Amino acid sequence: MDPKPSVLVLVDSDPKSSHRPAEATRIAAGIAAWGQATVNLCFCGPAISALNEWPEDLIDGDTFERFLPPIAESGGQVAALNPPDATGARPPDRVDYKSVDAAELAQLSARATQLLRF
Hints:
The chain is α/β, with parallel strands linked by helices. It is built from 4 helices and 5 strands. It has helices spanning 20-34, 49-52, 61-73, 102-111, and strands spanning 6-11, 38-43, 77-81, 98-100, 114-117.
C-alpha cells in the first residue's frame, strides 16, 4: 500500500490586506477533513500574523479561528517560517504551531506530493 500523500500549503501573502491567507487555510482544512492526505500549512513573511494577531485586524480573521485547529487535529502540522519574537499585547495562539527554519521547510517541501502556494 502506498503511503498517504502529503500536501504542503505555503502562505506568504499578508492577511491584513488580502483574503488569500484565509482562503488557503480554509482549503487546507477541507483537504485535511477528507482524510486521504496529510496536510501541512506553513506561514511565511507577513502571513505569520495570521497566527498571532487579533482576528478583527485580519481580512476574514474568523476563518483562521475556525479552520486552523482542524488541520492540527487531523495529524497535519501548522508551521511558521522563522517567526519574529512577539512583544506587546496579543491574543493567545489559536493553534499550536511549530517554528521552522529554511532547512526544515525544505524538508517539508521535499516530502510533499503536492504544493499549493498562496
